[in-house]
């Protein structure tokens, strides 16, 4: 199996109000060296395949079409080999 | 005139929209579960507000791939009137029917309040019963209504008169250019953060939302007459 680890971040041109709020809290805690905070997302997608090239193509399209919004976000990902123990989410019924 | 109101898991303004059509227009309106994939026979679609799929991933992102959305896109491409309110606006952007994105409010708070909007274009299927430059009172209720887009898209929206509503008072969410509602280039798809369906009788605090519904009916009738 393959596991894609995907990072989704706000584009630099986009204000991150969450990051600003967290920065202010860190300042309140006394960490005056904190100059900037940006908040993003990390997704893990496990694929039942060993075809690395196809997996890269698929993950790229998934990122472009659903996992990120190109208007305000960028994405990067890396793919690693894993065994079945990587599947940890329970099977919730679909909605 | 027949309206469809698609309901996603987590929609919560669906019946307000349905009642809005019935009470204001007395026209036919049907709730449509999001698994439905056929909207033939409807003349207009209202995507209601709420928190489809719990706003998981991004507001509107998962609803965009519900089966009903393919037929919403088809309806839009056929020139039928489509309006997305609040979460419905977010879904229309995710589906690529409207440009830009709606980010978290710049002050980070969920804002539930009346807002004053200015009607910026009254030559449309959604605003023909308003006066140009008129200010109207319509409520908002959202945490992610901070409209953004790239500078060239903003210029296009301005140049083509696609901005139908701007916040006339305090900007409640940080929206670029005070934008509250935009339509597509063809003029048949509208997205707006404020809730016209929550302002249809005076006891609601305002009845200014009624004319958005009557505008749609008027546009549809004119279109029927021309056909």
From TrEMBL, chain A:
The keyword Iron does not apply. One of its GO terms (biological process) is 'de novo' IMP biosynthetic process. Its EC number is 6.3.5.3. The keyword ATP-binding applies. Keywords: ATP-binding, Cytoplasm, Ligase, Nucleotide-binding, Purine biosynthesis. GO terms for cellular component: cytoplasm. One of its GO terms (molecular function) is phosphoribosylformylglycinamidine synthase activity. Coiled coil: none annotated. It catalyses: N(2)-formyl-N(1)-(5-phospho-beta-D-ribosyl)glycinamide + L-glutamine + ATP + H2O = 2-formamido-N(1)-(5-O-phospho-beta-D-ribosyl)acetamidine + L-glutamate + ADP + phosphate + H(+). Pathway: Purine metabolism; IMP biosynthesis via de novo pathway; 5-amino-1-(5-phospho-D-ribosyl)imidazole from N(2)-formyl-N(1)-(5-phospho-D-ribosyl)glycinamide: step 1/2. InterPro entries: PurS, PurS-like_sf. It is found in: Cytoplasm. Part of the phosphoribosylformylglycinamidine synthase complex involved in the purines biosynthetic pathway. Catalyzes the ATP-dependent conversion of formylglycinamide ribonucleotide (FGAR) and glutamine to yield formylglycinamidine ribonucleotide (FGAM) and glutamate. The FGAM synthase complex is composed of three subunits. PurQ produces an ammonia molecule by converting glutamine to glutamate. PurL transfers the ammonia molecule to FGAR to form FGAM in an ATP-dependent manner. Part of the FGAM synthase complex composed of 1 PurL, 1 PurQ and 2 PurS subunits. Belongs to the PurS family. This is Phosphoribosylformylglycinamidine synthase subunit PurS. It comes from Croceifilum oryzae.
């Amino acid at each position: 199996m393959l596991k894609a680890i995907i990072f989704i971040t706000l584009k630099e041109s986009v204000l991150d109000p969450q990051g600003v709020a967290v920065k202010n809290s860190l300042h309140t805690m006394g960490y005056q060296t904190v100059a900037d905070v940006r908040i993003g997302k990390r997704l893990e997608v496990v694929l039942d395949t060993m075809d690395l090239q196809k997996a890269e193509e698929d993950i790229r399209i998934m990122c472009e079409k659903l996992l990120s919004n190109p208007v305000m976000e960028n994405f990067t990902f890396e793919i690693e080999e894993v065994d079945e123990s990587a599947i940890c989410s329970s099977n919730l019924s679909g909605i | 005139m027949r309206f469809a109101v698609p309901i996603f898991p987590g929609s919560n303004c669906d019946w307000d929209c349905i009642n809005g059509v019935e009470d204001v227009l007395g026209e036919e309106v049907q709730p449509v579960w999001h698994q439905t994939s056929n909207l033939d026979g409807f003349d207009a679609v209202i995507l209601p507000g709420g928190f489809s799929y719990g706003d998981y991933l991004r507001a509107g992102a998962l609803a965009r791939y519900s089966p009903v959305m393919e037929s919403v896109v088809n309806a839009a491409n056929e020139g039928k009137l489509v309006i997305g309110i609040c979460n419905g606006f977010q879904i229309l952007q995710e589906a690529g029917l409207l440009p830009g994105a709606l980010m978290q409010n710049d002050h980070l708070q969920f804002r539930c309040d009346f807002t004053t909007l200015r009607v910026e274009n009254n030559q449309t299927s959604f605003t023909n019963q308003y006066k140009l430059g008129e200010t109207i009172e319509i409520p908002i209720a959202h945490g992610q209504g901070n409209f953004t887009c790239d500078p060239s898209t903003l210029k296009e929206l301005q140049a083509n008169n696609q901005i139908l509503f701007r916040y006339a008072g305090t900007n409640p969410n940080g929206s670029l250019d005070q934008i509250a509602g935009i339509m597509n280039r063809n003029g048949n798809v509208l997205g707006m953060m404020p809730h016209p369906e929550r302002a249809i009788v005076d006891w609601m605090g305002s009845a200014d939302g009624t004319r958005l519904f009557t505008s749609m009916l008027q546009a549809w009738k004119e279109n029927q007459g021309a056909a």
